[in-house]
Design a protein that fits this description.
Number of helices: 9
Strand content: 15-25%
Length: about 290
């Protein structure tokens, strides 16, 4: 190969490498979801309900009749991914009948916040093809700023609750529970940002009245997993969670889960429930 051609090839390679490691870029491979994770695939990407991470892809290709430099191609791919992440966030459902897009449609502040969430998203993968086309992967979390925008205003800050002293009497087998697992793996429940737990009479057992906004924004109102085994290992619900069975999905409110009276009594008899419900130490197990 002629010397001049070799130098030209090296320069092309170095240019591509610099683009790959540019500001905000992270060199990584797509990482498969952990065992037991619950993922929802939507039009523009996916939501991992077990981690709160949203992932989308964007791409840009050079036009044959117009020269583009690497910066232009990168900017177009990033813009494409940002548009996709906005569209995906708008598809997420706050409740069964209320997608984020509908909720935010007439609220300029919320739409601006969603756009900022997309702008702040992290690039986790970039891949250039031989002709200079670029595909990249963008990732952001629904926890924090996004949830602050879309969690219902009825969920407010609850004053600090001083938990009761833990049971230490060796003659009493009762142990304080540290969290709640609702096993909904046998019912057809779709994940939403704001699920509600009801008893068979329709009384709310876990809803806005029990939740402190601080924890809901930071960690989500619940975490969804698709394995009871994975749920039991989660730090979110502590070392001694209460496990209750989902009986059915609410007919009038499909973003609610109904539990039977026996489990209702178990939950209401646990005085420590006020503490772990306030802190959103709740996991819902869905079918795989």
């Amino acid at each position: 190969m002629p010397k001049s051609k070799t130098i030209h090839t090296i320069l092309i390679f170095l240019t591509a490498l610099l683009c790959l490691t540019g500001p905000g870029a992270v060199m990584s491979q797509d990482i498969p979801a952990a065992p037991g994770a619950c993922l929802t695939t939507l039009d523009k990407g996916s939501v991992n309900w077990s981690t709160g991470m949203v992932t989308v892809k964007g791409e840009a290709a050079p036009l044959k009749d117009k020269k583009k430099n690497a910066d232009t191609i990168f900017g177009e791919a990033r813009a494409d991914a940002s548009r996709n992440i906005i569209e995906l966030l708008k598809q997420i459902r706050i409740s069964a009948d209320l997608p984020v897009g509908t909720y935010a449609a007439d609220k300029d502040i919320i739409m601006a916040g969603i756009e900022k969430t997309a702008m702040d998203a992290r690039i986790t993968r970039q891949l250039y093809s031989s002709d200079g086309a670029l595909k990249l992967t963008l990732e952001t979390s629904i926890y924090g700023g996004f949830l602050q925008l879309v969690i219902p205003e009825t969920i407010r800050q609850i004053p600090k609750i001083t938990p009761a002293e833990p049971q230490t009497d060796p003659l009493d087998a009762t142990i304080d529970h540290t969290g709640l697992i609702i096993d909904a793996s046998d019912i057809d429940f779709s994940p939403v940002i704001y699920p509600v737990i009801l008893d068979e009479q329709g009384r709310e057992l876990y809803s806005s009245a029990f939740i402190s906004r601080e924890y809901a924004v930071q960690n989500g109102i619940v975490t969804y997993v698709c394995s009871l085994k994975a749920a039991m290992k989660s730090k979110r619900i502590g070392i001694h969670p209460m496990v209750l069975k989902g009986l059915r999905v609410g007919e009038a409110t499909p973003s609610s889960i109904i539990i039977n009276m026996s489990d209702t009594n178990r939950l209401e008899e646990a005085v420590e429930r006020h503490h772990f419900l306030k802190e959103c130490r709740v996991i819902i197990v869905l079918a795989k």
